[in-house]
Design a protein that fits this description.
By secondary structure, this protein is of the alpha+beta class. The protein is built from 7 helices and 25 strands.
C-alpha cells in the first residue's frame, strides 16, 4: 500500500506539459524534485501565458528552397570510387569540358578505361538550402556533400558543381566548390563546405497577393478548426483596438484548419511590411492544443499533457492492480487520488507507477494498452 506521504508527492502535478525521464535507474527523490520544480515553473508562467503569432505560424511564401547537383571531389587519400563507371563517366565529362578529352572510341564514344585507377576522386551528391527569407544573387551559403560509393571524403576538394532547382528543372541556380569539412569524424562519407555555394539568381519569395492579402500557416501541432478560429478572433480583436481594421470588415479570416488569410488595411497599402511585422509580433493567449502523450521508447521519455484523462478502468499489470479508490483486497494496490478532479488523469497514474518504481517499458506498455481499450482520452504519439 502506498503510504500517505508518497500519495501527496505523487499528486503534485502542474497544469502545463511535463517531460519525465522515467527510467528505473533514476532515483525517486530526483523525479519528485523535478515535479516540484515544474509545478513552480508553471505557476510562475501562468500569468504570462501569451505567445507571439510568429511562434506558431509561418508566412505563406516564405519557404526554404533546396538546390541539388552531382559533383566530383578530388584530392582524396585513396578512398575514392574511381573504379565506379558513373564516377569515370563524370570525370571524363569534366575533363572534356576543360579541354582535356579522354580517348575516343569508334562512334564518338568516350573510353574511360584510362580513368579506372583514379582512386583519389569520388562522385558526390551536393545540396544547398536557401533559407525561407530568400537571398540575392551573389550571396554565399553553406552546402553539404555526401559520397555515393566512396568510403571517405576526408581531405577532398569539391570541383565546381552546378546546382539545379526542383526535380525536372535544368536551370542552374548556383555553383558549389571548395574544401570539404567533415561534420562527424565517425561518418567520413558526409561533409559540408562553409560558404561554399554561390547563388546565381535572386531568391525573392513573394508573400503578398495582388489583392493585398497574405496567409498565415499554422504549424502542425496547432492545426485545427478550433485553434484557427480562436487565433483569428484574437487577431481581429487586437487589430480593431489598434485601429488596424479594414473599412470593409475584419483583417483576419480563417480559411480552414491550417490557414488564416490577412488583409492589409488601406493605411498600410504602401508599407505592407510594417503591417506584416505587427501581425507576427502580436501577442495572443496560448491556444489549447489537443490532449496528447508523446513517448520516446528509445530514450525512455514520456511527455504528458496535464489534460489527458483516463476513463473508469481496473488495470492489472503483473503483480499490480490499479483502479480508482473504492477498496480492494489486492496484495499490491496503487491508489489514484480523484479528490480534486472527477476523473483520474494519466499524469496521476504515471506518478503513482513511478512511485512504486515500475520500469519505464512497463509504463509505456500500460499507456498503449489504455489507448487500445479506448479509456485514454487523448492522442498517443510514439517516436
Amino acid at each position: 500500500m502506498m503510504d500517505q506521504a508518497n500519495n501527496k508527492q505523487a499528486n503534485l502535478t502542474s497544469k502545463k506539459m511535463h517531460s519525465y525521464d522515467l527510467r528505473a535507474s533514476v532515483p525517486l527523490w530526483f523525479l519528485q524534485t523535478l515535479a516540484l520544480c515544474l509545478v513552480a515553473y508553471s505557476f510562475a508562467t501562468n500569468a504570462h501565458a501569451q505567445i507571439h503569432v510568429r511562434d506558431i505560424c509561418r508566412l505563406k511564401g516564405q519557404e526554404a528552397n533546396t538546390l541539388t547537383g552531382l559533383g566530383l571531389v578530388v584530392g582524396l587519400k585513396g578512398t575514392g570510387d574511381g573504379n565506379s563507371p558513373p564516377t569515370q563517366r563524370a570525370l571524363a565529362q569534366m575533363m572534356k569540358s576543360h579541354g582535356n578529352p579522354v580517348l575516343q572510341l569508334p562512334g564518338n564514344i568516350d573510353s574511360v578505361d584510362e580513368l579506372k585507377n583514379a582512386k583519389n576522386v569520388a562522385l558526390v551528391w551536393v545540396t544547398a538550402t536557401v533559407p525561407p527569407e530568400g537571398r540575392r544573387q551573389g550571396d554565399v551559403i553553406d552546402c553539404h556533400v555526401s559520397a555515393i560509393s566512396a568510403s571517405s571524403l576526408e581531405g577532398g576538394t569539391l570541383l565546381p558543381t552546378p546546382l539545379l532547382g526542383p526535380a525536372g528543372s535544368d536551370r542552374i541556380y548556383a555553383f558549389s566548390q571548395g574544401l570539404v569539412q567533415l561534420d562527424n569524424e565517425a561518418n567520413t562519407a558526409t561533409a559540408r563546405i562553409h560558404r561554399g555555394c554561390r547563388l546565381e539568381v535572386d531568391f525573392i519569395n513573394q508573400y503578398l497577393t495582388p489583392e493585398g492579402t497574405f496567409t498565415l500557416v499554422l504549424d502542425q501541432n496547432h492545426s485545427s478548426f478550433e485553434i484557427v478560429q480562436d487565433i483569428t478572433e484574437q487577431i481581429n480583436s487586437q487589430a480593431s483596438t489598434q485601429a488596424l481594421h479594414r473599412d470593409d470588415g475584419n483583417v483576419a479570416r480563417a480559411i480552414g484548419p491550417v490557414n488564416i488569410e490577412i488583409s492589409v488595411p488601406d493605411a498600410y497599402r504602401q508599407d505592407p511590411v510594417a503591417f506584416v511585422a505587427q501581425i507576427l509580433e502580436m501577442r495572443i493567449f496560448n491556444p489549447q492544443t489537443k490532449s496528447k502523450v508523446v513517448i520516446n521508447e528509445r530514450a525512455g521519455t514520456i511527455v504528458i499533457g496535464a489534460d489527458v484523462q483516463i476513463g473508469a478502468v481496473v488495470l492489472s499489470h503483473k503483480n499490480l492492480i490499479i483502479e480508482p479508490p473504492a477498496g480492494t483486497s489486492a496484495a499490491k494496490f496503487v491508489e489514484l487520488d480523484t479528490t480534486n478532479t472527477p476523473v483520474a488523469r494519466l499524469q496521476d497514474l504515471v506518478d503513482a507507477l513511478n512511485a512504486v518504481r515500475l520500469p519505464t517499458k512497463d509504463i509505456i506498455q500500460i499507456i498503449k494498452t489504455l489507448e487500445a481499450s479506448g479509456k485514454l482520452h487523448g492522442q498517443v504519439v510514439v517516436q
